[in-house]
Amino acid sequence: MFALIDGNNFYVSAERVFSVKLRNVPTVVCSNNDGCAVARSQEAKALGVRMGQPLHELKPLIRDHGLQVRSANFALYGDISHRIVEILRGEVPRLEVYSIDENFCDVTGIRDREAFARHLRDKVLRWSGIPSCVGIGPTKTLAKLANKAAKAGAGVVDLAEPEAQARCLATFPIADVWGVGPRWSARLTGMGIHTAAQLRDAPTDLVLKEFGVVLTRTQRELQGHPCVELEEVEPDRKQIVVSRSFGERVTDHAAVAQALATFTVRAAEKMRRRGLVAAGVGFFAHSDVFRPELPQHSASRSVSLPTATADSRLLVGMVDRLMRGRLKEGIGYKKAGVVLMDLARPEHLQGDLFAPAIVGNDKLMSTLDAINAKFGRGTAGLGATGWAKKPAWQMRQRNLSPCYTTRLSDIPRAMC
DNA sequence: TCTGGGGTCCTAGGACCC
DNA sequence: TCTGGGGTCCTAGGACCC
Fold first, then answer.
1. Residue A11 Cβ < 7 Å to strand C
2. Protein CB footprint (7 Å) on chain B nucleotides
3. Phi and psi dihedrals of A206, rounded to 5?
4. From the CA of A180, how many Å to the C1' of B7?
5. Length A259 CA → C11 C1' (Å)
6. Which chain C positions have some atom within 7 A of a protein CB?
7. How far is the CA of A209 from the C1' of C4 (A)?
8. pLDDT tens per residue, chain A (416 residues)?
């Protein structure tokens, strides 16, 4: 039996833990670069703010309804997320961290599931300040569905029993089922399947023929047959991408190169933290797709490396060679990124018959990582990333809150 | 003027092998 | 007129998730 506990409007709730003036006030948190709304408080939803709505469309609401806007502060959200995981680990024997705001828990054998779910919510709220909802079901898909239903107000919904499932699925919109996206939702609706119950009861051979094994699995899960296990250990990443939209359009190729070097260093740090090495690397850079009247260009290239590496210097050098000569004059680049591919654990690497495997200078890289962990990101690094105070490509974060829980200088002070 | 970032899996088709 | 059977690997595209 699965329970899914999910933070309500998570990013907004995380901002509200420390910023009292945001409570009970319509609030949104933006994507990077302050582009669009990615989290909305109940009050903001009531004002009609849509998921992903561009920020510039929200100006009237900011002016007339006091809509509050915050830039995404992932250091804060990630830290609060870890705290919630630790709280839950103290309560359940098995747990899967599914996303920054969702955790699946094994609640098999618990007699009063609803009371236990209420206990989890209360404890998470008291210890972390984040309100949440709990959905319970015999499969992950049903637990997700129960969680969605719980958001309607009850806070906890238990779909362990078939009668409860039947009642809930009968009116549950197909578009809200986990694993059904906009495309499939439109096709299913066209076939007369509008609710979760109708998908559950559709002929399996039809679902298999039209949508493949993925949706067929979802159908089985809706029928109460578990097809997706609890994943207690996160599988190793296969690739790591670091990409950003720039704060403004950039025509200077040296500036794009600096941005790519910065992203490469970030990606390599993430990779080393996971104990992985890359056997391939790629980059891309696009002009501003939202300005079709401007000249457009998109550059990208990737290569396999002769030997896998986790050394930032080698990777920065590779990216620099890849991009050289691939950008066009007179193009304003708006977004770029770096991809580390074919990731593996170094102990699993295939050896090279003619050259010893060189995964890079471990001591140098671990010293670099240790310095940056102790004194803050960017304390020590590579010259190729540039040391300009404020590069043109830097993303906009006009309403960034302090890193209350992860930076000593940002710790809130209590005034007596 | 202003529009995010980071992932995974499945499938079909082509190239190639014996 | 007849023209096999069985397999792997890679890639691109399409779908999904948060």
1. no
2. 1-11
3. -70, -45
4. 17
5. 29
6. 14-18
7. 28
8. 999 999 999 999 999 999 999 999 999 999 988 999 999 999 999 999 999 999 999 999 999 999 999 999 999 999 999 999 999 999 999 999 999 999 999 999 999 999 999 999 999 999 999 999 999 999 999 999 999 999 998 999 999 999 999 999 999 999 999 999 999 999 999 999 999 999 999 999 999 999 999 999 999 999 999 999 999 999 999 999 999 999 999 999 999 999 999 999 999 999 999 999 999 999 999 999 889 899 999 999 999 888 889 999 999 999 999 999 999 999 999 999 999 999 998 887 766 666 655 566 688 999 999 998 888 888 888 988 887 777 888 888 889 999 898 888 888 888 77
Question: Which residues, at least 6 apart from A35, have a Cβ–Cβ distance to it below 8 Å?
Answer: A54, A55, A245
Tokens coding A108: 């098999």
| CA separation, residue A346 to residues A30, A154, A281, A323 (Å) | 38, 48, 16, 27
A209 touches strand B (CB under 7 A): no
Q: Distance between CA A97 and CA A94 in Å, rounded? A: 10
**A209-CA/C1-C1' distance, Å:** 38
The answer to whether A159 and A136 are in contact (CB under 8 A) is: yes
Q: Give me the DSSP letters along A345-368.
A: -GGGPPPPSSS------HHHHHHH
Each residue of A117-151: b (16+ CB within 10 Å) or e? beebbeebeeebebebbbbbbbbbbbbbbbbbbbe
Evaluate if the CB of A371 falls below 7 Å from strand B: no
Q: Is A281 left (phi over 0), alpha (psi -120 to 50) or beta?
A: beta
CA atom of A217 to C1′ atom of B16, Å:
33
Evaluate if the CB of A101 falls below 7 Å from strand C. Answer: yes
Measuring alpha carbon to C1', the residue closest to nucleotide C17 is: A179
Question: What is the value of pTM for the model shown?
Answer: 0.93
Nucleotide whose C1' lies closest to the alpha carbon of residue A337: B5
